[in-house]
């Protein structure tokens, strides 16, 4: 059987997403092209690789075996490109980095800038994901480094401390919440919400709200944490943002800040890599820099 690199990458993305549609998008292929490739792979293998259902796809035993080897092959190819890159000045190297919303917005830009400045031949593919998705993607070999909350399942990963992030509720100084000593998510029932337009953090908040039967219905969705704080200070409603963002905003905005009294609101962010795979030299350099060693 002859599978090319595109075949293997497509199979990995479909396996991670549990969906041919989402896997095709991640692999940069149209749905018909992706479906045809997968059918051809099964024909070449002479065995069924995917069980297709109404809710997505799952791997057969043969599919699990292919997934294992595809991860090894693509990982080795990444190392080959990196090592050759050390010998060719004009050949650029790329590190794939996944991060949750707080890390992406509040911590990584300042950390990544000096490393990129001193590595002119390096590029970073930076994508936002929820922490659970990051753990799965790193385990499957879709990226070299992740920044996630260590509250999620991290079997098969090696974690390194990064920062501690706490979620807080922001509102106007004359809001009723300003008089409360402790605020839980359930206390926000019936409040007007100011939410993020999209992203992993908003998905996380929506999921936590759904667990207690609370549906967040935003009055407005905004792009960034500063915009949420600005709206809250004007009395538009309440928002939930990382404490690091509030420290910056409260210097110029009249806002009330209350820590969320929920275990999931305190998130120790960690760097993560696969335990059984050696990083490329470029990725190792970036990891050490983010750890404060480089």
Written overview of the protein:
This is LysR family transcriptional regulator. One of its GO terms (cellular component) is cytosol. Keywords: DNA-binding, Transcription, Transcription regulation. Belongs to the LysR transcriptional regulatory family. It holds the Pfam family HTH_1. The protein is of the alpha/beta class and 294 residues long. It folds into 3 domains: 5-78, Arc Repressor Mutant, subunit A (Orthogonal Bundle), CATH 1.10.10; 82-163 and 268-291, 3-Layer(aba) Sandwich (D-Maltodextrin-Binding Protein, domain 2); 165-264, D-Maltodextrin-Binding Protein, domain 2 (3-Layer(aba) Sandwich), CATH 3.40.190.10. The protein contains 10 helices and 11 strands. The protein has helices at 5-17, 20-27, 31-45, 61-87, 101-118, 131-140, 200-211, 225-233, 243-249, 281-291, and strands spanning 50-53, 56-59, 93-99, 122-128, 145-149, 157-172, 193-196, 218-222, 239-242, 255-259, 266-274. The strands form 3 sheets. Strands 3, 4, 5, 6, 9, 10 and 11 form a 7-stranded mixed β-sheet that branches. Strands 1-2 form a two-stranded antiparallel ribbon. Strand 3 (93-99), helix 5 and strand 4 (122-128) form a beta-alpha-beta unit. Helix 1 packs across helix 4, helix 2 (20-27) packs across helix 3 and helix 8 crosses helix 9 (243-249). The radius of gyration is 22 Å and the shape is globular. The model has no long low-confidence stretch (mean pLDDT 88).
């Amino acid at each position: 059987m002859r599978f090319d690199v595109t075949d293997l990458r497509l199979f990995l993305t479909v396996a991670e997403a549990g969906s041919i549609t989402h896997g095709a998008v991640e692999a940069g292929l149209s749905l018909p092209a992706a479906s045809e490739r997968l059918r051809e792979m099964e024909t070449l293998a002479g065995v069924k690789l995917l069980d297709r259902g109404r809710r997505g796809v799952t791997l057969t035993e043969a599919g699990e075996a292919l997934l294992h080897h595809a991860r090894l092959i693509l990982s080795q190819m990444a190392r080959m490109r990196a090592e050759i890159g050390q010998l060719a000045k004009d050949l650029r190297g790329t590190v794939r980095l996944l991060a949750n919303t707080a890390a992406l917005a509040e911590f990584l830009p300042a950390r990544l800038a000096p490393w990129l400045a001193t590595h002119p031949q390096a590029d970073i593919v930076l994508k936002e994901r929820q922490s659970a998705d990051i753990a799965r993607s790193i385990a499957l070999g879709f990226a070299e480094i992740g920044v996630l909350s260590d509250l999620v399942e991290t079997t098969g990963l090696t974690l390194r401390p990064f920062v501690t992030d706490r979620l807080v509720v922001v509102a106007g100084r004359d809001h009723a919440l300003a008089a409360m000593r402790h605020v839980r998510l359930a206390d926000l029932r019936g409040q007007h919400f100011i939410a993020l337009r999209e992203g992993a953090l908003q998905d996380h908040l929506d999921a936590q709200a759904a667990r207690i039967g609370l549906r967040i219905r935003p009055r407005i969705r905004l792009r960034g944490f500063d915009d949420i704080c600005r709206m809250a200070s004007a009395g538009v409603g309440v928002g939930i943002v990382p404490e690091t963002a509030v420290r910056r905003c409260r210097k110029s905005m009249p806002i009330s800040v209350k820590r969320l009294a929920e275990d999931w609101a305190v998130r120790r962010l960690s760097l993560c890599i696969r335990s059984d795979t050696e990083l490329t030299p470029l990725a190792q350099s970036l990891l050490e820099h983010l750890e404060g060693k480089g």
